[in-house]
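User: Please predict the structure of the protein below. I'd like the answer in structure-token form so I can feed it into my own downstream comparison script.

Assistant: Understood. Taking the following sequence of 379 residues as input:
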Amino acid sequence: MRTDSVYITGISKYLPNQAVENDAMEDYLGVINGKSSRTKTIVLRNNGISSRYYALEKGGAPTHTNAELAAAAVEALFDARFTPSDLQLLACGTASPDQLVPSHAAMVHGLLGGAPIEIASFAGSCCASVQAMKLGHMSVLSGNTSNAICVGSEMLSHWMLAKFFQKEMDREQLLNASPMLSFDKEFLRWMLSDGAAAIRLENKPAGDLPLKIEWIDTRSYANENKTCMYVGAEKDKQGELHGWSTYAPDDWLAKSIFSVKQDTRLLGDRIVKHGIQFAKDVVKARALDMDSIDYFLPHLSSELFRRPIYEGMRDAGIHLPMEKWFTNLASVGNVATASFILMLEELARTKPLKSGQRILIFVPESARFSYGVALLTVC
């Protein structure tokens, strides 16, 4: 049955193991070519992250799969009122699935058990969980289901271990007396981390602090841009992307094909530009009164972007004072698809939210420049 409103009735998180401070990162990820990274100092100085979580033991042994992280976050939403057998739709977003096939959502559902349900997987990067939430919202709003759980999860540390870069460094050693991993390949080793977070959607308010979803908008600017962040591929000199299957197996390690890479020049040129344009379009289309916003939750991949986003929005006539901003990048790190839900969970848990307050969520994705915005109202 169709409904007029969809509510967030539960928010959960799962962060593996203990927080890892900056000076301990290489204890988990390892060192490349036997030397501590010089790039790490530069990146950490700019990104503002002081701790994060890894699904690893010291030395790099894995402690969880991505699916296990996601399942743990989902399980935290089950209780006596809402059991696994009540769930009707599971929508999962991730940039780091454990395998290509089966889908990530299928693996998470397999761990959860319960009843046969509808599932959906969203691949990509930071916006994948926003897309999962939008599907859940539309499903409940249309009456296709009466509830949904949407989860964002990442297990990115497993892709950033030093052993996956050593083959490339060994090859470079033969060609260069002072080999160095390219900045585009090493940059994200010091930016990304692991974890999962989930939200439960229902067609009726429930729980201590339900949030009403007013709307969710997403947009891609891939038609205007080359690829910026990528995995399992390599860019040629013209900026065109070539997938892993076009390379010989020996090159997969020799060229670090499966590392997470970022075109930092393209990132700096486009990520804020498109984000401001999208924000302007949404504010106009939705007739959004910015003075009515009580909390602004922007997903920041780095503190480096805080000031440019603030000034860009201000100059575009979208003024949100810094005192309305709420982020937790410094303490939990950049967890890509899980980040916006981790912010929302902490906001709801730590701030005295009141009925009628409005929360604006803003999520940029650099992979090929996608964005998501959602407006919530405290019930």
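That's the full token string. The radius of gyration is 21 Å.
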